[in-house]
Structures are given as C-alpha cells and as structure tokens.
TrEMBL record:
HAMAP family: TatC. The keyword Ribosomal protein does not apply. The keyword Transmembrane applies. NCBIfam families: tatC (TIGR00945). The lineage of its organism: Bacteria, Pseudomonadati, Bacteroidota, Sphingobacteriia, Sphingobacteriales. Forms a complex with TatA. Keywords: Cell membrane, Membrane, Protein transport, Translocation, Transmembrane, Transmembrane helix, Transport. It is found in: Cell membrane; Membrane. Its main location: membrane. The gene is tatC. It comes from the Bacteria. PANTHER family: SEC-INDEPENDENT PROTEIN TRANSLOCASE PROTEIN TATC (PTHR30371), SEC-INDEPENDENT PROTEIN TRANSLOCASE PROTEIN TATC, CHLOROPLASTIC-RELATED (PTHR30371:SF0). Belongs to the TatC family. This is Sec-independent protein translocase protein TatC. It comes from Mucilaginibacter antarcticus. It is a multi-pass membrane protein.
Amino acid sequence: MSEERNLVKAIKEKGKNLEAEMSFFDHLEALRWHLIRAAIAILILTGVAFWNFKFIFDEIIMGPFRPDFWTYKMMCKLGEGFCLQKINAEIINTEVGGQFMLQINSSMLVGIILSTPYILWELWRFIKPALLEKERKAAGGFVLYASLLFLVGILFGYYVIAPESISFLASFSVSDTIKNTFTINSYLSMVATITLIMGLVFELPILIFVLASLGVLTGTFMKRTRRYAIIIMLIVGAIISPSPDVTACMIVTLPLLALYEIGIMIASRIEKRRAKEHTDLMTS
C-alpha cells in the first residue's frame, strides 16, 4: 500500500510539473507572437519613414540645425539677445556608405518612435491576463498614459533640449583656429539620444505607479527623500544640458521635479488605498 501511495503521489507530482512546464511554454509562445507583431509594426512604419525620408530629413532631423527652427523663433521673441542668427558649424559625411546608412538608421529610429504606442499595447496584452480584476481596472489607462508621457518627453527633448545643445555646442570653441565641423552620424546620434532619453525619463510616473502597486515604493518614502531626489535631479539636469548656464539647467530640471511630484501623488494614493484595504480586511 505504501508503494502504491508513493506511486500515485509521484504521478501527481509529475502531472503538476508537466502542467507547469506547459503553462511556461504557453507564455513563451504568447510572448513570441507579441514580439513578432511589434516587430512587424516597426518594420511597416520604418518602411513608411524610408519612403518619406526627404521630408523627415529636411524638416525633422535637420530642423534644430536651422536658425528658423520653431524653438529659435520663440527664443527671439524673448529679446534680441536670445536671437540666433546663424549656427556656426557645418555637417559633413566622412564615410562611403554614410548617407545610405543615415537613411536606414533614421528611418528605423522614426519607425520605433511611431510604433511605441502599439508596442506598449502589445506589452499590456501580454501582462493583462496575469493581473487580478482590481489590478486591471487600476492600470486600465496604462497604454494611453504611457504613450502620452513618452510623446511629451520626445517633444520636450526635440524642441527644448536638442536645440539648446546644438546652439551651444556649435558656438563653443576653445580656439579660433578650430572650426566646428560635425559628422552627420554624430549629429544624428546626439539628437536621437536626447529625444529618446527624455521620452524614457517622462515615463517616471508610470515606473512609480508600478513600484507603488507592488509595494516597493510608497508616497511617504518619496516625501521623506524629496531633498535627496532634488539633488539627484539637479545633477541629471546638469548632465543632460551641455550649457553651463543655470537657466538652461533649470529648464531641464523643472520638468523632472514636476514628474517626481506627480509620482508622489500617485504613490500616496496607492498607499492610502492599500491601507484602507488592509483596515477593511482586519475589521471584517
């Protein structure tokens, strides 16, 4: 009888293991199709960008390098001292296939940025089945809010940080004998890095929401460490902004502070909700 019970127990354990393995591979299969669909979306939008590359290059990529760019016009309205008459630099290509690779890389970058909302939607579809009904309702606007924050960050990086960086670096010189001549790859890399970093930085409230929902972060903790967070954000603002001007540094830092304060409100709300649920559970 003992051997039979052990055999039955072993069969049950084997069945549980097989079920767990099947569930794991089912999740991998689902993830694979989500990734495939996201990759297809990137390829399609990359193709659209490649087909319309002349407009993208002239109006978007090279926009911050032109004195008539929207940001420079707005700066000029603040006073003649802020007007930018000319960008004292030239852009060259130093590689045989440089311009062709520029078109491919730029098109792929635009494709990734434009497909971000769809990628987030596929991510949401993958994690949604693993959430409880209450968690699904709480995170119902994940795709919308994450996409809007990413878009705002991209626009902030493109219209504020990138022009500021280009105008400063193009006019900066340690000697009159050195002319600023940038390669197209370095220019594109700087603009793309700035815009993408700001797009990711603006996702801070989403990150705080996730951490607060998991119980890793609380509004009380964020309030208590606010002074340290301000110092860190000032350092980050100084790093992102190449200009040593305090005003330029604050232009970058203030949105980070605003995002942190929004994160505090989000974390505090979740903390209060969790405390209420705990109290209701204890009194029931």
